[in-house]
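User: Teach me something about this protein's shape.
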Amino acid sequence: MKVAIVTGVAGGIGKASALMLLSKGYAVVGMGRSETPDLTDFSGLQLTYVPGDISSADDRKNLFEAAREKGDIMALVNVAGVAPKVRSDILEMTEESYDYVMGINTKGTLFLTQTVANHMIKQGKGGSIVNISSC
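Assistant: First, the predicted structure itself:
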């Protein structure tokens, strides 16, 4: 079974990406921060939802393991991203705000990509990694 991992799967671009991959025959393992997201658009489809935060090493491991159990991981779509909790001038930014944004948008994405890319290499079947961001 071809498996795709999608972060930020509960809404917007993440949801659209997951639905497209499901239509192409992938089983999708998706992560979002909500414990109880509205997944009605995925009814009857092969979506496995893993609640979590990609800034957490334990949550990234849970996501990866859930995907690995489904089959060959052939795609990773990094969509999860956040804005600062309080938008302010660089002269007023707090370390808490910086850590929040960088933990999800950069650190989490980097280390999930590293884990999945190393696994894809070991599988020996190739794969695709897509990073989606905004500025």
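Now, about its shape. The chain has a mean pLDDT of 95. Residues 29 and 48 are 5 Å apart (CA to CA). If you'd like, I can walk through any region in more detail.
User: That's plenty for now, thanks!
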